[in-house]
Design a protein that fits this description.
heterodimer, A: about 90 residues, Ubiquitin-like (UB roll), 2 helices, 8 strands, B: about 140 residues, alpha/beta, Cytidine Deaminase, domain 2, 7-stranded mixed sheet, 3 helices
Chain lengths: ~90, ~140
Amino acid sequence: MSIEVRIPTILRPFTKDQKAVVATGATLTVLITDLDQQYPGIGDRLLENGALRRFINIYINDEDVRFLGSLEAPIKDGDSVTILPAVAGG
Amino acid sequence: MSLTISRVFVDAIVAQSRAEYPDECCGAILGPVGSGTPTRLLPMINAAHSPTFYEFDPKDLLALYREVDDNDEEIVVIYHSHTETEAYPSRTDIAYAGEPGAHYVLVSSRKEIAPAIEFRSYRIIDGVVTEEEVSITEESISSP
């Protein structure tokens, strides 16, 4: 099972500037582990203390993973994953 | 490094910041990819509805990036207002700045300086803030 993962500009230094990469995993946790093995360091930019970082948004297809079980969100063949940093501040 | 922007957009952002006061307002201006020219203003809902914080709604954020991709555009400007402080990036603005290619525009809607306009632009890259010159043009917008 290979899933297309869209990478935001700010994380492209980890992916050799690729806008989209391929990873595998039946849940978001497993997918992020696989991403981090392929692109060491990227996992730390997505997770903090074992949870999804507050100001990172990850979507499976069109849905925010926070509504799909967060890190336990299931991923199936043909899904696409999009990572976007929140546009936020004070 | 500088930002060239139409007065139409400057006026629209200032008007939005006043309309949404006392909450912070926010939005983006898109332009053709690679142009660096802001041509299409998209006011966004501040999902935080707060006088001290702003956040694009996550669903709107995804829609925005899809639109940018579909139209061969880029996010040229990301703007928001400060309601009681000067138009300079706050610590959280710097911490969460995630678009190294964008101009981060701040307007101040603090009462004591109104009606004077404080409209300033910055690059925020790897935690480093660089203010840049803003050139306001009188041209009308000729984008589709």
